[in-house]
Amino acid sequence: MKPGLKLLVAGAALAFFVALPQLITVKYYLHLSVLALVWVIAAQGQNLIQGYTGYVSIVQAGFMGIGAYSTALMGLHFDLPVWLTILLAPCVTAIFALATGYPSLRVKGHYFAIVTLAFNMVIFIVLMNFHQLTQGEAGITGIPKPGSRDGWINFRDREVYYYFVLIVAVAMTALAWLIVRSRVGQTLMSIRQNEDLVGAIGIAAWKYKLFAFVVSAMFAGLAGALYAHYQSFINPEIFGVAQSLDAILAVIVGGSGTIAGPVIGAFVVVFLPEYLRFADSFRLILYGLLLVLATIFMPRGIVGTLAVVWSKLERRG
Amino acid sequence: MNTMLTKWTAGAAAALVLTGGAVFAADKTLDIGVSDALTGGAAVYGLPQANAVKMAAAEINAAGGIAVGGDTYMLNVIAYDDKANPTEASNAVRKLIDRDGVKFILGFCCSGATGAVASFIENEDAVMLVGNAAERSITTREIPNLVRTRPPADYTGAAAGTFVADKGHKRVAVLGALDVGFYASYVDAFEVELNKAGGEIISREAFSLKDRDMSPQLTKIREQQPDAILVVGYVEPAAFVYRQAVELGIDVPRYGFTSGSEEQFLRVASSEQMEGVWDLRPTELTLLSASDNGIAYHKNYSDTYGIAPSPSSPYAYDQTYALKDAIEAAGTVDDTQAVAAALRELAVPDEVVMQYLPVDGTMFDVNGQAYTSNGAFQWQSGNWVFVQDLPSDAAAYSAFLSTID
User: Fold this and answer.
1) What is the pTM of this model?
2) Which of B53, B153, B254, B398 lies at a CB distance of 3.0 to 4.6 Å from B182, suitable for a disulfide?
3) Considering its fold, how many domains does chain B have in total?
């Protein structure tokens, strides 16, 4: 696809997302859209480490949890403004990511995935058992929304919060795009293709991998913070391994190693299980089946498949 | 011919009027929602609750529906699976309110999912009726449009502690799902009362919902030689604890807080392995202790679903009748504030199964919390047998609950 056309598609997508609240007649779908946009941010982070660097990390939801609990606890205990805690949440997550990323990235492939899985489980157990700080399974309620009730923008309004998260999601998607296009991004993709060769030409691959891992975690931390202030409630259940697998799925289904892929994948991961509610107890079986079929028949994800179809059409035309 | 036609017309008109009234009455449908764990580990509590609401709705419909002003409403239940997951529960409730237009939402077996919904329900034009979820904080915020039929876990834990202390046990080992908030609060309240009588908890060993091999924890407990063990947790892991305690030769009284039915326990442990086990819990449904309502509920549920009801399922059944009475008292199905206020003023309905202890004459106190009596049940020859009431001061606990922010 030509760059001009890509820009046109991106612009049309943005216009669609801006107009979405006006097109939606049932507010429930607006609620799902807010959640999907939160997942767009987390999935863009996941895509940096998984899609562009080639390392499958299974700790994205754990990092979302750190971001969510950081913003909630900083607000509750230090009485910091919501805006500040949202900004600090990715920074706190980055510190944890640095501590976990350094040992994790000493191993590759499946071993890396298993180590990060273990970290997610550790985060979950700590959130569950450190009652004095996290209130365990009961969770933290009453997490405030940004702004005051009498402020000129009412963030308690779902539509306003949608636009707020949309702005952040667009900004983070743009940031991911800038990273990918930069020299750092090119190095990350080189690591994905052949890490040994990258090392052989004198590039310290571990620094770039650590960068991707930490930035990925910061995306997740920010997503977690936005989730916490939207739902006003968090407990550890939301940040388990199953949710980390959702982040991986969002990247795979949407299109690994593409900027648009995580956007589409995040919406699929949030909306599909909800659309399948008509199937009652067969819902998750159907969900799993659809994902298996999608992975088999669309290994490059939705974006990759569309690109193939488009190039075929272009050749015929 | 004309006379004949006139007679037919008059007859048809009369028939229209007569049947028309019935058609109009039948046309009024009130959708009520259920958000509960219909699948997954917590479905042992959630699915029976959803079934109980459907059964109560069918009974109410068969008895003529809910009378509001001159209208009669038939109930239609829309149930969604929340898998006891907070995000799923939020999505399910948002869907019920925003898409399905439901104003009354029942069910809620599990605390995490319930806490998530409770965090935003105050801002919604809806009434939330919580069932089995026992986490105390759900009713400490005095949310005006939320009520709960099950008492908090620490209300029962304190009564259990007194009971075990009265049995003369001084050294009690605890094994349970201690990472789950309401089980931990049960044990904390239990410990306070045990300490008052000079007893102590000598160890706290934990298991998770999916654990099946409890022998490491039980072996450690056996070495500590406790006077008794206390097991708190979901039915299935608790049943494994009881079974494996016998297999490891631990011969001390076993107390628990599980609310499992006979059928649920017998899937894991034999009746011989369960013999003598105590369950110290709200006086929930067991056939041998049930009132006439309880016996009828047990029979109807068994006939309808082909399986015995879980002991905690009537919390949801009772919600439905409380809602019916509140709607009739408020005289509206549209004004949720009026219905929520009517719930707070409601006397205990005649049809309920649980044995509620009214506070100031009402089923729900100012916090929206209902209280049942607590009871000591013992497994005897394949059944849970009600042995005695546990001390339950609903008024005092209600006053205490009001002091918690």
Assistant:
1) 0.81
2) B153
3) 2
